[in-house]
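User: quick one, fold this
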Amino acid sequence: MSLSTIIAFLAALGLFLGSILLATDNFLIFASFSSFVMVFCGTLAATFVSYEARYVGLSLKLIWRIFKRASVGRNILKSEVGRVIRWAYLVQKSGLPALENEGRKAVRGDLFLRFGIEMVVSGYTGDEVREILHNSIETTYGRNTVQVNILKTMGAIAPAFGMIGTVVGLIIMLGSLQADPGQLGTGLAVALITTLYGILLARLIFLPVASKVQQREQIVRFRNYLVAEGLALLADRKSPRYIQDKMNSYLDPAIHFNIDTMKR
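Assistant:
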């Protein structure tokens, strides 16, 4: 679990609820199950009409995934450079069969890296490896960001259903106004809650989750471009130092890999 994400979310939620408690002692007026159902279910209904059900389900699962630790970080990027350089020394010493054996152990669970090593071992040129891997990177990124677009759509729909709920509430309130005019203020407050729920779902859940998932996918795409470049250079039998300098050019200078400090 990503502790920083959980802490940030709870802190933001706590500040929001705290500000309500400071503004009024009648905080239960902000709780309305019917308003929540109208906004949330209306948003889901419109989304299911707009997209295939399977992708909508995958998008909703992403809400919980943001609390997990990101799979790629700065140190991992640096270690990827070191790994490719070690493979370059291995190829210099023992040839491609040694890379095949080493790669089979090192890339367990990493389908992209396994695919790249198989092409290098098969004798593809660097340009061929680079072209195929770049195509794989972009198509994978496109598939993985379909859910991001769905969440952004949900973020746009939710406030609209908040307004629809408010209109419905106003119609009901005005319809019963003649019976008890004294309930006008209370009825109006309840009607406006649906607008509040729509904005909160959009700005606290759907849009932030979409932004975070997209950022993580962009980081994974960057990592894959870095690895693809290293494998392409490995296929061209470039020297370990050249591979280091080329891969380091992708990274922040603060995390450049230093070939002179590695243990071979």
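User: anything notable?
Assistant: The mean pLDDT is 84.
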